[in-house]
Amino acid sequence: MKRLAFFLIIIFNFQFSTFNLFAQVGEYRSALAVGVNGGYLFNRVSFDPTIKQAYHGGSTFGLTIRYTSERYFKMLCALQAEVNYAQMGWKEVIETSSDTYSRTVNYIQVPLMARLGFGREVKGVMGYLVLGPQLGFYLSDKDRRGGAWSAATLALRPNNVVQQYDLDIQNHFEYGITGGLGMEVNTKHAGHFMIEGRYYFGLSNIFHDGKSDTFGRSANGAIVAKATYLFDLFSKK
Quick one: which H or E segment has residue 9? Predict the structure, then answer.
């Protein structure tokens, strides 16, 4: 509850700061663009006690909406929201036996971001920054096990940390902060084409974290590479 309260404070401050930024005296804009995005993400779950992992790869895709409100000096200010399907999860590195283990955890994710663009607004190339809170809603999960996978090999795990294998995803709502950098190619009639790198830092845990629970922390952290296409519904200056 303390983490959730802290996150809600972040959202409030984020939106208040964004409102103040957009309320500055600048060149008026009113442009709404919608479209689709897709890409690939590399996720790890930050466990405490630690579990050694490689990055778990998964797809992500969804819808994007962007409202541009003003140009302030050379900075184009906008708000951007997405609704994405994402395959998160983790992949363990097990060095004590031939066992293998990975779990894919599927989410609907909703990032709500401020977007600051620098460059050519109508025709040409623009660089941009996105930053803001992200919400996630659990859909399903599936694990894969390989190797001998016996009581003898489980007993060889470092610090005897094996409880994650039999735990269902216990927290079906997650939240965190996401941000990234990208490049956009603007055309007069064909729309907007973007490529972007983004990082998501989870503030909530996928498993319970009480004093009697196994893990004090079990939060997602993902590197995301994606492409986006938007077309304008309207654009006014």
Answer: helix 2-22
pTM of the predicted model over 0.85? yes
> In the numeric block, which tokens belong to residue 212?
């009697």
pLDDT tens for 65-108 read 999 988 877 889 999 999 999 999 999 999 999 999 999 999 99
Residue closest to 237 by CA, chosen among 78, 115, 70, 114: 70
3-class SS letters over 49-111: CCCCEECEEEEEEEEEEEEEEEEECCEEEEEEEEEEEEEEEEEECCCCCCCEEEEEEEEEEEE
H/E element, 12: helix 2-22
Give mean pLDDT, residues 117-122.
87
Burial of 229 (C-beta count, 10 Å sphere; 0-12/13-18/19+):
middle
Which two tokens mark 115?
């977007």
| C-alpha span between 77 and 12 (Å, rounded) | 18
Domain segments of the chain: what residues?
29-173+186-207
Q: What HEC string does 131-196 produce? A: EEEEEEEEEEEEEEEECCCCHHHHCCCHHHCCHHHHCCCCCCEEEEEEEEEEEEEECCCCCEEEEE
pLDDT of residue 136: 98
Token code pair at residue 96: 């004590």
